[in-house]
Automatic annotation (TrEMBL):
Domain IrrE N-terminal-like, residue spans: 50-158
Species this protein is from: Lachnoclostridium phytofermentans
Protein name: IrrE N-terminal-like domain-containing protein
Superkingdom, taxonomy of origin: Bacteria
Pfam family, one: Peptidase_M78
InterPro entries in the record: IrrE_HExxH, Rad_response_metalloprotease
Amino acid sequence: MINSFISLDDLEVIVLDKLKSLGITEKDYPLNPYKLIANEKIILQEVDIDNKDIRGMIVRGANAVGIMINGTRNQRSKNFIAMHELSHFWLHPSEERRVCLDNYIDSQRMYEWQANNAASIALMPTTLLTRLYCECAGNIYCLCDFFDVGIDAMTYRLKNIRRDCLSWNVHTNGYHINFNEFCEKTYNEKLLYNRRYY
Ligand SMILES: [Zn+2]
């Protein structure tokens, strides 16, 4: 259980340990959060909610836990929401009820930040994502197809892995990830990372 500030690196260790304890390996990707939720015996419901800001909800009862996902979202968005709610289940067991919105204020890296980043790590683990990013020559659409996630989730994840390889692109008015720098730096550090945790 986490109830205070946590770094992204520490969160990654917790999430990877959890997946490892469930026997998840690279062969299980793209990860199916719906299967993981079923394995936890959580009741899952998709409900069409007109308010698009509401992504999902988790409720803990005396005898059961329920997760609700906004059914109006597209499938890739629903995959992310499912993993987000499951992350609350794993990381925040003391909470009885939480409604998850698109926009939240979380400067302290608390529950919503943790669930978003845990979902992001679980669906797109650094080692596998880095390898595929470099093998796919940085083609973001190919990566989204492989991991079954949306463009926004993929972009956010890549930015988190390597902020120092980002540059502001004035033409597209958005961030650009320097491909060579990203692959070179991440691979070098990944060797150290693997030695640290496995
Ligand atoms: Zn949430």
